[in-house]
Design goal:
The chain has one domain. It is mainly alpha-helical. The protein contains 13 helices and no strands. The chain starts with a helix and ends with a helix. The longest helix has 33 residues. Helices cover 79% and strands 0% of the residues.
Length: 320
Protein backbone atom coordinates (compact mmCIF):
# COMPACT_ATOMS: atom_id res chain seq x y z
CA UNK A 1 0.00 0.00 0.00
CA UNK A 2 2.86 2.38 0.88
CA UNK A 3 4.64 1.62 -2.41
CA UNK A 4 1.47 2.38 -4.35
CA UNK A 5 1.04 5.66 -2.47
CA UNK A 6 4.64 6.67 -3.22
CA UNK A 7 4.16 5.90 -6.94
CA UNK A 8 0.98 7.98 -7.04
CA UNK A 9 2.70 10.89 -5.26
CA UNK A 10 5.60 10.78 -7.75
CA UNK A 11 3.10 11.41 -10.54
CA UNK A 12 0.65 13.72 -8.80
CA UNK A 13 2.97 16.10 -6.92
CA UNK A 14 5.00 17.28 -9.96
CA UNK A 15 1.75 17.67 -11.90
CA UNK A 16 0.25 19.73 -9.07
CA UNK A 17 3.37 21.90 -9.03
CA UNK A 18 2.98 22.43 -12.79
CA UNK A 19 -0.70 23.35 -12.40
CA UNK A 20 0.17 25.74 -9.56
CA UNK A 21 2.86 27.48 -11.65
CA UNK A 22 0.39 27.87 -14.53
CA UNK A 23 -2.23 29.32 -12.19
CA UNK A 24 0.35 31.55 -10.46
CA UNK A 25 1.76 32.98 -13.69
CA UNK A 26 -1.56 33.52 -15.48
CA UNK A 27 -3.21 34.97 -12.39
CA UNK A 28 -0.83 37.95 -12.69
CA UNK A 29 -2.01 38.84 -16.19
CA UNK A 30 -4.80 41.29 -16.97
CA UNK A 31 -7.49 40.32 -19.54
CA UNK A 32 -5.69 42.48 -22.12
CA UNK A 33 -2.41 40.70 -21.47
CA UNK A 34 -4.08 37.30 -21.82
CA UNK A 35 -5.47 38.44 -25.15
CA UNK A 36 -1.96 39.51 -26.14
CA UNK A 37 -0.61 36.02 -25.32
CA UNK A 38 -3.34 34.46 -27.47
CA UNK A 39 -2.39 36.79 -30.32
CA UNK A 40 1.23 35.64 -30.09
CA UNK A 41 0.05 32.06 -30.56
CA UNK A 42 -2.12 33.06 -33.52
CA UNK A 43 0.66 35.00 -35.24
CA UNK A 44 3.45 32.46 -34.60
CA UNK A 45 5.23 30.95 -37.60
CA UNK A 46 4.75 27.22 -36.98
CA UNK A 47 7.04 26.19 -39.85
CA UNK A 48 9.98 26.93 -37.57
CA UNK A 49 8.48 24.60 -34.97
CA UNK A 50 8.31 21.81 -37.55
CA UNK A 51 12.00 22.37 -38.25
CA UNK A 52 12.56 22.22 -34.49
CA UNK A 53 10.93 18.77 -34.45
CA UNK A 54 13.37 17.61 -37.12
CA UNK A 55 16.35 18.66 -34.98
CA UNK A 56 14.81 16.84 -32.03
CA UNK A 57 14.33 13.69 -34.10
CA UNK A 58 17.98 13.72 -35.18
CA UNK A 59 19.16 14.15 -31.58
CA UNK A 60 17.17 11.13 -30.39
CA UNK A 61 18.28 9.04 -33.38
CA UNK A 62 21.90 9.93 -32.58
CA UNK A 63 21.31 8.91 -28.94
CA UNK A 64 19.97 5.55 -30.11
CA UNK A 65 23.00 5.01 -32.38
CA UNK A 66 25.45 6.06 -29.64
CA UNK A 67 23.96 3.54 -27.20
CA UNK A 68 25.46 0.57 -29.06
CA UNK A 69 28.98 1.94 -28.57
CA UNK A 70 28.63 1.03 -24.86
CA UNK A 71 26.69 -2.21 -25.33
CA UNK A 72 29.12 -3.73 -27.86
CA UNK A 73 32.03 -4.24 -25.37
CA UNK A 74 29.67 -6.48 -23.33
CA UNK A 75 28.74 -8.53 -26.41
CA UNK A 76 25.36 -6.95 -27.24
CA UNK A 77 24.28 -5.05 -30.34
CA UNK A 78 20.53 -4.32 -30.40
CA UNK A 79 18.90 -3.22 -33.64
CA UNK A 80 19.06 0.53 -34.23
CA UNK A 81 15.28 0.63 -34.73
CA UNK A 82 14.72 -0.96 -31.31
CA UNK A 83 17.16 1.47 -29.71
CA UNK A 84 15.44 4.46 -31.35
CA UNK A 85 11.96 3.34 -30.32
CA UNK A 86 13.22 2.64 -26.78
CA UNK A 87 14.60 6.22 -26.60
CA UNK A 88 11.33 7.78 -27.82
CA UNK A 89 9.31 5.64 -25.41
CA UNK A 90 11.61 6.71 -22.59
CA UNK A 91 10.87 10.40 -23.21
CA UNK A 92 7.17 9.59 -23.42
CA UNK A 93 7.25 7.81 -20.05
CA UNK A 94 9.11 10.73 -18.49
CA UNK A 95 6.08 12.91 -19.25
CA UNK A 96 4.03 10.69 -16.92
CA UNK A 97 6.56 9.73 -14.24
CA UNK A 98 9.81 11.75 -13.99
CA UNK A 99 12.97 9.66 -14.60
CA UNK A 100 10.93 6.51 -15.38
CA UNK A 101 12.12 6.65 -18.98
CA UNK A 102 15.57 5.28 -18.15
CA UNK A 103 13.96 2.16 -16.70
CA UNK A 104 11.66 1.73 -19.71
CA UNK A 105 14.62 1.97 -22.12
CA UNK A 106 16.42 -0.84 -20.36
CA UNK A 107 13.24 -2.92 -20.24
CA UNK A 108 12.61 -2.54 -23.99
CA UNK A 109 15.97 -3.87 -25.16
CA UNK A 110 15.87 -6.51 -22.44
CA UNK A 111 12.61 -7.78 -23.91
CA UNK A 112 13.38 -7.48 -27.63
CA UNK A 113 17.19 -7.87 -27.81
CA UNK A 114 17.92 -9.95 -24.69
CA UNK A 115 20.20 -7.37 -23.08
CA UNK A 116 20.20 -7.90 -19.27
CA UNK A 117 18.30 -5.09 -17.58
CA UNK A 118 21.01 -4.22 -15.06
CA UNK A 119 23.74 -3.94 -17.72
CA UNK A 120 21.52 -1.89 -20.03
CA UNK A 121 20.56 0.44 -17.19
CA UNK A 122 24.23 0.83 -16.26
CA UNK A 123 25.05 2.04 -19.79
CA UNK A 124 22.17 4.52 -19.60
CA UNK A 125 23.59 5.93 -16.35
CA UNK A 126 27.03 6.16 -18.02
CA UNK A 127 25.67 8.08 -21.01
CA UNK A 128 23.79 10.42 -18.66
CA UNK A 129 27.11 11.23 -17.00
CA UNK A 130 28.56 12.09 -20.42
CA UNK A 131 25.51 14.27 -21.12
CA UNK A 132 25.89 16.06 -17.79
CA UNK A 133 29.51 16.92 -18.68
CA UNK A 134 28.39 18.55 -21.94
CA UNK A 135 25.53 20.34 -20.17
CA UNK A 136 28.05 21.52 -17.58
CA UNK A 137 30.13 23.07 -20.36
CA UNK A 138 27.03 24.83 -21.74
CA UNK A 139 26.21 26.11 -18.23
CA UNK A 140 29.75 27.49 -17.86
CA UNK A 141 29.40 29.13 -21.27
CA UNK A 142 26.11 30.71 -20.19
CA UNK A 143 27.71 32.02 -16.99
CA UNK A 144 30.65 33.43 -18.96
CA UNK A 145 28.26 35.27 -21.28
CA UNK A 146 25.62 36.37 -18.75
CA UNK A 147 27.10 35.93 -15.26
CA UNK A 148 25.18 38.67 -13.44
CA UNK A 149 21.79 37.75 -14.91
CA UNK A 150 22.13 34.03 -14.17
CA UNK A 151 23.62 34.56 -10.71
CA UNK A 152 20.78 36.80 -9.55
CA UNK A 153 18.15 34.56 -11.14
CA UNK A 154 19.46 31.33 -9.60
CA UNK A 155 20.01 32.83 -6.14
CA UNK A 156 16.42 34.05 -6.21
CA UNK A 157 14.75 30.72 -7.11
CA UNK A 158 17.10 28.08 -5.63
CA UNK A 159 16.86 27.42 -1.86
CA UNK A 160 20.59 26.75 -1.41
CA UNK A 161 20.40 26.08 2.35
CA UNK A 162 17.60 23.53 1.97
CA UNK A 163 19.41 21.81 -0.91
CA UNK A 164 22.58 21.58 1.20
CA UNK A 165 20.67 19.95 4.08
CA UNK A 166 18.94 17.57 1.65
CA UNK A 167 22.29 16.68 0.06
CA UNK A 168 23.92 15.88 3.41
CA UNK A 169 20.88 13.81 4.46
CA UNK A 170 20.86 11.80 1.23
CA UNK A 171 24.62 11.21 1.49
CA UNK A 172 24.27 9.83 5.02
CA UNK A 173 21.34 7.64 3.99
CA UNK A 174 23.35 6.38 1.00
CA UNK A 175 26.30 5.43 3.24
CA UNK A 176 23.94 3.63 5.65
CA UNK A 177 22.32 1.81 2.72
CA UNK A 178 25.65 0.65 1.30
CA UNK A 179 26.74 -0.57 4.75
CA UNK A 180 23.54 -2.64 5.01
CA UNK A 181 23.95 -4.07 1.48
CA UNK A 182 27.61 -5.08 1.75
CA UNK A 183 27.84 -6.00 5.44
CA UNK A 184 24.76 -8.23 5.73
CA UNK A 185 23.75 -11.46 4.02
CA UNK A 186 20.00 -11.03 3.96
CA UNK A 187 18.25 -12.23 0.81
CA UNK A 188 17.45 -8.66 -0.23
CA UNK A 189 21.12 -7.65 0.29
CA UNK A 190 22.36 -10.44 -1.97
CA UNK A 191 19.86 -9.50 -4.69
CA UNK A 192 20.86 -5.83 -4.54
CA UNK A 193 24.58 -6.76 -4.67
CA UNK A 194 23.94 -8.80 -7.81
CA UNK A 195 22.02 -5.91 -9.37
CA UNK A 196 24.80 -3.44 -8.50
CA UNK A 197 27.39 -5.76 -10.09
CA UNK A 198 25.45 -5.69 -13.37
CA UNK A 199 25.01 -1.92 -13.12
CA UNK A 200 28.75 -1.48 -12.59
CA UNK A 201 29.54 -3.57 -15.67
CA UNK A 202 27.20 -1.43 -17.76
CA UNK A 203 28.48 1.79 -16.20
CA UNK A 204 32.15 1.01 -16.80
CA UNK A 205 31.48 -0.21 -20.34
CA UNK A 206 32.16 3.39 -21.35
CA UNK A 207 35.83 2.81 -20.44
CA UNK A 208 36.04 -0.28 -22.67
CA UNK A 209 34.63 1.30 -25.81
CA UNK A 210 36.60 0.89 -29.01
CA UNK A 211 34.71 3.72 -30.70
CA UNK A 212 35.58 6.50 -28.26
CA UNK A 213 35.74 9.33 -30.83
CA UNK A 214 32.43 8.40 -32.49
CA UNK A 215 30.89 8.35 -28.99
CA UNK A 216 32.25 11.83 -28.27
CA UNK A 217 31.06 13.07 -31.68
CA UNK A 218 27.51 11.83 -31.11
CA UNK A 219 27.45 13.20 -27.56
CA UNK A 220 28.37 16.67 -28.85
CA UNK A 221 26.01 16.30 -31.84
CA UNK A 222 23.07 15.45 -29.55
CA UNK A 223 23.51 18.67 -27.60
CA UNK A 224 24.06 20.76 -30.72
CA UNK A 225 20.70 19.45 -31.92
CA UNK A 226 19.12 20.29 -28.53
CA UNK A 227 20.39 23.88 -28.74
CA UNK A 228 19.36 24.12 -32.41
CA UNK A 229 15.90 22.79 -31.49
CA UNK A 230 15.54 25.63 -28.99
CA UNK A 231 17.25 28.27 -31.14
CA UNK A 232 15.10 27.78 -34.24
CA UNK A 233 11.98 28.43 -32.15
CA UNK A 234 12.97 32.07 -31.55
CA UNK A 235 12.04 32.82 -35.17
CA UNK A 236 8.47 31.66 -34.57
CA UNK A 237 7.72 35.03 -32.94
CA UNK A 238 8.78 38.39 -34.34
CA UNK A 239 9.46 39.73 -30.82
CA UNK A 240 12.01 36.96 -30.07
CA UNK A 241 13.63 36.66 -33.52
CA UNK A 242 16.44 39.09 -32.65
CA UNK A 243 17.67 37.23 -29.55
CA UNK A 244 21.44 37.32 -29.14
CA UNK A 245 23.44 34.11 -28.83
CA UNK A 246 24.04 34.77 -25.13
CA UNK A 247 20.29 35.17 -24.51
CA UNK A 248 19.55 31.91 -26.33
CA UNK A 249 22.18 29.94 -24.38
CA UNK A 250 21.10 31.41 -21.04
CA UNK A 251 17.41 30.66 -21.67
CA UNK A 252 18.32 27.17 -22.93
CA UNK A 253 20.19 26.39 -19.70
CA UNK A 254 17.33 27.62 -17.51
CA UNK A 255 14.85 25.63 -19.60
CA UNK A 256 16.98 22.48 -19.33
CA UNK A 257 16.89 22.62 -15.53
CA UNK A 258 13.20 23.62 -15.46
CA UNK A 259 12.28 20.30 -17.08
CA UNK A 260 13.38 18.51 -13.89
CA UNK A 261 10.87 20.37 -11.70
CA UNK A 262 7.73 18.78 -13.13
CA UNK A 263 6.66 16.01 -15.52
CA UNK A 264 8.54 16.91 -18.69
CA UNK A 265 8.60 20.56 -17.65
CA UNK A 266 4.80 20.91 -17.62
CA UNK A 267 4.04 24.38 -16.28
CA UNK A 268 7.57 24.93 -14.99
CA UNK A 269 9.27 25.28 -18.39
CA UNK A 270 7.17 28.24 -19.68
CA UNK A 271 7.23 29.83 -16.20
CA UNK A 272 11.03 29.84 -15.84
CA UNK A 273 11.63 30.77 -19.49
CA UNK A 274 9.39 33.83 -19.03
CA UNK A 275 11.17 34.72 -15.75
CA UNK A 276 14.69 34.59 -17.23
CA UNK A 277 13.65 36.53 -20.35
CA UNK A 278 12.35 39.34 -18.13
CA UNK A 279 15.99 40.00 -17.21
CA UNK A 280 16.70 40.66 -20.88
CA UNK A 281 13.86 43.15 -21.28
CA UNK A 282 11.37 40.69 -22.83
CA UNK A 283 7.82 41.29 -21.58
CA UNK A 284 6.11 38.61 -19.50
CA UNK A 285 3.47 38.08 -22.18
CA UNK A 286 6.03 37.45 -24.93
CA UNK A 287 8.19 35.31 -22.63
CA UNK A 288 5.22 33.21 -21.53
CA UNK A 289 3.98 32.71 -25.08
CA UNK A 290 7.49 31.80 -26.25
CA UNK A 291 7.99 29.37 -23.35
CA UNK A 292 4.73 27.57 -24.14
CA UNK A 293 5.47 27.47 -27.87
CA UNK A 294 8.86 25.83 -27.28
CA UNK A 295 7.44 23.40 -24.70
CA UNK A 296 4.45 22.44 -26.85
CA UNK A 297 6.70 21.75 -29.86
CA UNK A 298 8.82 19.38 -27.73
CA UNK A 299 5.72 17.82 -26.19
CA UNK A 300 4.19 17.16 -29.63
CA UNK A 301 7.41 15.53 -30.85
CA UNK A 302 7.60 13.23 -27.82
CA UNK A 303 3.91 12.39 -28.00
CA UNK A 304 4.08 11.70 -31.75
CA UNK A 305 7.26 9.63 -31.94
CA UNK A 306 6.80 8.03 -28.50
CA UNK A 307 3.25 7.00 -29.32
CA UNK A 308 4.26 5.61 -32.72
CA UNK A 309 7.12 3.71 -31.10
CA UNK A 310 4.77 2.08 -28.60
CA UNK A 311 2.57 0.91 -31.49
CA UNK A 312 5.34 -0.13 -33.90
CA UNK A 313 7.75 -1.81 -31.47
CA UNK A 314 5.77 -5.08 -31.12
CA UNK A 315 4.96 -5.05 -34.86
CA UNK A 316 8.63 -4.60 -35.83
CA UNK A 317 9.59 -7.48 -33.51
CA UNK A 318 6.61 -9.72 -34.29
CA UNK A 319 8.87 -12.57 -35.46
CA UNK A 320 10.58 -12.82 -32.07
Amino acid sequence: MKKKTVKILKIVLPLLLGVFLIWYSYNKFTPDQLTEIKDHFKNANYWFLLLSLLFGFFSHLSRAYRWNFMLEPMGYKPKLANNAMAVFIAYLFNLAIPRSGEVSRALVINKYDNVPFDKAFGTIVAERIADVLVLGFIVLLAFALQFDALKDFLLEIIPIQKLLIAGITLTLLGIAGLFFIYKTNFKISLKIRKLIAGLKEGLFAILKMKKVWPFIFHTVFIWIMYVAMFYICIFALEETSSFSFSTVITAFVVGSFAIAFTNGGFGSYPFFIAEILLLFGISATVGTAFGWIVWISQFVMILLFGGLSLLLLPVYNRNK
